[in-house]
Design a protein that fits this description.
Elements: H1 11-20, H2 24-29, E1 34-35, E2 46-47, H3 68-73, H4 77-100, H5 136-151, E3 162-166, E4 180-181, H6 185-192, H7 194-201, E5 207-210, E6 214-215, E7 218-219, H8 224-233, E8 238-240, H9 248-251, H10 259-269, H11 282-287, H12 293-309, H13 330-343, E9 345-349, E10 362-366, H14 374-377, H15 390-398, E11 403-407, H16 427-435, E12 439-445, H17 473-484, E13 489-494, E14 508-511, H18 519-527, E15 541-542, H19 560-563, E16 568-570, E17 581-589, E18 594-601, E19 607-617, E20 628-637, E21 642-648, E22 656-657, E23 663-664, E24 668-675, H20 681-686, E25 692-698
Parallel strand pairs: 3-5, 4-6, 5-8, 10-11, 10-12, 12-13, 13-14
Antiparallel strand pairs: 1-2, 6-7, 9-14, 15-16, 17-18, 18-21, 19-20, 19-24, 22-23, 24-25
Length: about 700
């Protein structure tokens, strides 16, 4: 038995052993994402590229959970952890099946290039719905839960998660191959790095993916600054480039002149795996004296170590026996439904919801997203076995006792449904359906053909980004015409980002996100009172894009809930239920760094809600403009019930970041608040519970209060 075949040895020892048997050419071959076999070593081919953002993607059937931004809206680390375990389990089952049949192609491996923990700093960014929102603390907590769920706790990883895109990456999509992200030391430490640090230090994430852009002049996939941060945090996994990002070194960023120079730059900096083809030139770089064999060796060892941790160096593990029949099973489908129900956010309700179906004779379901499967999925998705659209969910709930009229009403973005028709050819039918009904469910929004990744969307003119925060004009016209009928109307928005639907005249507004394969069932359960909505916004909904800072500006001044002033339509952390919460008391335990909260359900509905903790220093001039989220807990309460519970605070809750990027703890007074929203006037006006606040004195650095 060769040392690398001995499962009793450490993954590092086994990796060093197998690489020591490789020639230089063989080492180089293993550094591409589509690594070929080395038959004399018993090493099969392996494709590193797989996606698992909210289900195993692009590889046939799998359970499709709500899109990542919707999973964030749950504010629920435990449920997200369970969803991640399902993603990994299905990835392992699909890998076993594919390998058994000789299929080792792309999207069939165990290295899932998820989660995306970039900060959704600007609502125009098309890929924002892949993230967990705009808050570094929320993103850190959720990303950590996801990674731990994917990787598991056994000797071997169930699958390998990957934190992407490192770092300071959030558009514009059309500039990503050439853009230089200029970020201050304060913003880097305060906003852009915390989630990556948490995933490396706390979750022991196995992979990190670099970004396309430069960061303060250096290509992110060869940044001495970023690679230094990984070493500082103790990262011992593998580093992979974003796809064809290394090619950008010489074609777009112009920091090198040739492909061999780009390959050498990335390899010497610590990029182990090239998603792309630039490492085909790595041997040429060696021949030109640009890189040494030790660089090939180090990268190959890092990659083989990950394969060893996955149990892929020849041994048989229990995970190899996971059968295909776990894929898309009913238990997983039920978990997806639970996630969808907890993710939907009730933004407005004048008393119309929940609808009482026994009083309804007919309901109209109208809109381009009413019967759209694309509106369920977002991007990076697999094939759901039994998807349920919004229309189908409502029909299953109401028919045959109640008539359900359906009208598409308008195209998602074009001015007509039929090419030979005049503009607005669906409006008359939509109004007729509304006139025949007791209530209208108007399903509007976007899908990944409008907001998404450059090259993946039909929105080529904006490369996947949004130009504004409005619904497409065709939908704005439909909305106005349907509301003019005067029937009780619920507007349901499917989107992955902030929108201003201009729906002031609607009776209720639900942000449904891209809710996954059971989205229609979840919506029906909420509309008709089987479930009380309990999601919270993980991003700020703004009134207008014109009032935002420049999209290209990466300064956090005026951005997100922590620094925004005005222009807010629905605040971060906001979301109503069918009941009414009251916060009775709040105390802080300094020794345990926990808050004790007592809350009461003063309404008539059993419900779930999320208790949110916010904090700010009242004296430090380095504090952000507004309060910061520093803890949260999802609770379930029966009508009239009062509960007390503890919530752990973020370990960095009492710290601020200086202009030089140093995280310090100022002495003095902090205000800690508890509620089911931010402690802001806008949330209160919209119906959130009145928060309770206490002051906490901290013995920190007495010189940390003044710049």
């Amino acid at each position: 038995m060769k040392p690398y075949e001995n499962p009793a040895l450490s993954a590092q020892e086994r990796a060093e052993s197998i690489v020591s048997e490789m020639t230089l050419e063989e080492k180089a071959s293993q550094l591409k994402y589509d690594a070929p076999p080395i038959q004399r070593l018993g090493l099969p081919a392996y494709n590193w590229w797989n996606e698992g953002l909210h289900g195993v993607a692009r590889a046939g059937t799998s359970t499709m959970f709500p899109q990542a931004i919707a999973l964030a809206a749950m504010f629920d680390t435990e449920l997200l952890h369970e969803a991640a375990k399902v993603v990994a389990l299905e990835a392992r089952a699909k890998y076993n099946s594919a390998s058994k049949h000789g299929d080792r192609d792309i999207y069939k491996g165990l290295t899932l290039w998820s989660p995306n923990v970039n900060i959704f700093r600007d609502p125009r960014w098309g890929r924002g719905h892949e993230t967990y929102g705009e808050c570094p603390y929320l993103t850190s907590a959720l990303g950590t839960a996801f990674v731990k769920g994917v990787q598991g706790e056994g000797k071997y990883l169930m699958a390998a998660a990957c934190a992407k895109h490192f770092a300071a990456h959030s558009g514009p999509e059309k500039l990503r191959h050439e853009f230089d992200t200029e970020v201050s030391k304060k913003d880097m430490e305060e906003t852009y790095l915390p989630a990556f640090e948490a995933l490396v230090r706390d979750a022991r994430v196995e992979g990190v993916m670099g970004a396309y852009n430069r960061v303060n002049g250096e290509p992110a996939c060869a940044s001495s600054y970023l690679m230094g941060k990984l070493r500082e945090w103790g990262f011992d996994g593998y580093f992979v480039s974003d796809c064809w990002a290394v090619r950008d070194f010489h074609t777009s960023h112009r920091v090198t002149k040739t492909a061999p120079e780009s390959a050498a730059m990335a390899l010497k900096s610590g990029c182990d795996c090239n998603c792309g083809n630039t490492y085909l030139h790595a041997l040429a770089a060696y021949e030109e004296g640009l890189v040494e064999e030790e660089h090939f060796t180090k990268a190959a060892v890092n990659l083989m170590r990950t394969r060893a941790r996955l149990g892929l160096l020849g041994e048989h593990t229990k995970m190899d026996d996971i059968p295909y029949d776990v894929v898309a099973c009913e238990t997983h489908r039920e978990l997806s439904l639970k996630c969808a129900e907890r993710s939907m956010v009730l933004l407005k309700n004048n008393g119309l919801l929940p609808l009482q179906k026994e009083k309804l004779r007919a309901v109209a379901v109208i809109g381009p997203n009413a019967d759209s499967r694309a509106a369920l999925y977002g991007n990076y998705f697999g094939t759901a076995s039994r998807p349920v659209t919004f229309l189908e969910g409502i029909q299953r709930e109401l028919e045959p006792q109640c008539r359900v009229y359906y009208s598409e009403g308008c195209h998602l973005f074009a001015d007509r449904l039929q090419p030979l028709a005049l503009p607005g050819d669906g409006i008359a039918e939509a109004k007729a359906a509304a006139e025949m009904s007791d209530a209208v469910i108007l399903c509007l929004g976007l899908d990944a053909s409008i907001e998404g990744e450059e090259g993946d969307t039909g929105n080529a003119f904006a490369a996947g980004d949004k130009l504004d925060l409005l619904l497409p004009e065709s939908q704005r016209i439909l909305l106005a015409e349907v509301l003019s009928v005067g029937k009780p109307t619920v507007v349901v928005l499917a989107s992955g980002s902030s929108l201003n639907p201009l729906a002031d005249k609607a009776d209720a507004l639900i942000q449904a996100w891209y809710p996954g394969e059971t989205g229609g069932t979840a919506l029906a359960n909420i509309l008709f009172g089987r479930v009380s909505p309990s999601g919270k916004l993980p991003v700020t909904f703004y009134e207008s894009a014109e009032k935002l800072p420049s999209f290209e500006d990466y300064s956090m001044s005026g951005r997100t809930y922590r620094n925004a002033a005005g222009n807010i339509l629905y605040p971060f952390g906001f979301g109503l239920t069918y009941s009414q919460l009251e916060i009775a008391s709040l105390t802080y335990d300094k020794q345990c760094n926990t808050a004790r909260v007592t809350a009461k359900n003063c309404g008539e509905f059993d419900c779930e809600d999320v208790i949110e903790l916010y904090i700010r220093s009242e004296q430090s001039s380095w504090e952000v403009r507004n309060s910061r989220l520093c803890g949260f807990k999802r609770i379930r309460m029966k009508a009239g019930e009062e509960l007390s519970f503890d919530i752990a605070l973020d370990k960095n809750a009492f710290s601020v970041v200086t202009d030089s990027g140093e995280r310090i703890v100022p002495c003095g007074v902090y205000t800690l608040s508890a509620g089911n929203s931010q402690p802001d006037e806008q949330s209160l006006r919209l119906g959130a519970a009145k928060p309770v606040s206490v002051t906490v004195e901290i013995d920190g650095n007495p010189n940390a209060n003044i710049k």
